[in-house]
Amino acid sequence: MADLEFSGRTLGLYIHIPFCLSKCSYCDFFSVASANKVPDDYVRALCGEISSRFSGSDCLVESVYVGGGTPSLLSPAQIHTIFSCIRGNVRLKPGCEITFEVNPDDVCDSLLDALASCGVSRISCGIQSLCDDALTFCRRRASAEISRSALSLLKKRWHGNLSVDIICAMPHESSRSFLDGLAELVSLRPDHISMYCLTVEEETPLGSLIACGSLAYDYDLADEMWISGRDFLEDAGYNQYEISNFSLPGKECAHNIRYWSRGDYAGVGSGAAGTLYFPGGRALRRTNSRDIKQYTGYWNCGDAGKSGEFPWTTENIDEKSGEFEFFMMSLRKSAGFSESEYERAFGRRLPQDVRDVFLRWQKKGLARISAAGGDAVYSLGREGILFLNAFLGELP
Known about the structure:
The chain has helices at residues 40-54, 76-89, 109-117, 132-137, 144-157, 175-187, 205-211, 219-235, 254-260, 292-299, 319-330, 339-346, 352-363, 381-384, 388-394; strands at residues 10-17, 19-20, 32-33, 60-68, 92-102, 122-128, 161-168, 192-197, 239-242, 245-247, 265-268, 273-277, 283-288, 312-317, 337-338, 368-372, 375-379. By secondary structure, the chain is of the alpha/beta class. A 9-stranded mixed beta sheet has the order 9-10-8-7-6-5-4-1-11, sandwiched between helices. The protein is globular, with a radius of gyration of 22 Å.
């Protein structure tokens, strides 16, 4: 039976493939080791969840994002199975953006043929670096040469949008090698570049090395590298539309904009999360179990066997938490948010004490309050967006 909460809504759909051949030393995303492929029973469970939650629903899906993990471990046959299930059960908006993440060493003719035939419109390729010392130290599967070969094939064969990811300040990467790698990527003119500053998480192998002092890491240098990369991308014609995301004009990622703008989205797959928003700033977030055996067992058992504990948790987000998320997500975007967007979300005007924070930051040259069609627009500006956490800390 379709999720009743979806009724009448426009959604994004995220599909999680939580399998990797190996784990990068900095990664804290949910994934598990897989022997060269994604198990067929996981694909069947995905399709079971999709058909159960969407079949017969009148909701409209305007973006699909297949992420991981490593979705490019799926075989062409599995990719066709998943997308046949989507198209058979989900109402897709005409022109629906469909994004699929790939690792460079998985890029080949048969993968690209499968994605094209299934209607994928955007490939997101995780390059991360073109410095072999950094790639090796962080346990990336693809070497710089493999990444270059993948990019060459994508440039030759792929006719949809292309996004690439790069991380600045990986260990054993210098400022010079980072900018050289970024220049090489820009020379290929991908439609979209996601540039992240390395996030050091304590629970990861890399985080442990830094925490115990076995590896020195210069956070100030990392910030300087990111800023130099931002300046380089802007000079090359890429627009920074979100803290870490840059695109050529009109090539922004619709699915991610939906997420940062607090648009409804559903998550399918083990570990996937989805959020539905309600009047008054409330929200309902559902997160599927990270226990893959539990997840596949539930969705593959048939309706008669679906008893006992559900393989997901739900979180009710109250108005106060919802308001903080609104500011945190909206201000990641260069465009910020408008007064009317706030009023639609919370049913009241933007509080004066919040306006006062913006006014203080505007005097420092770190925020903007502008007018657009009679509506007030609040944003943090090119430099202010670098201090988002400090801004959030000043909110009442």
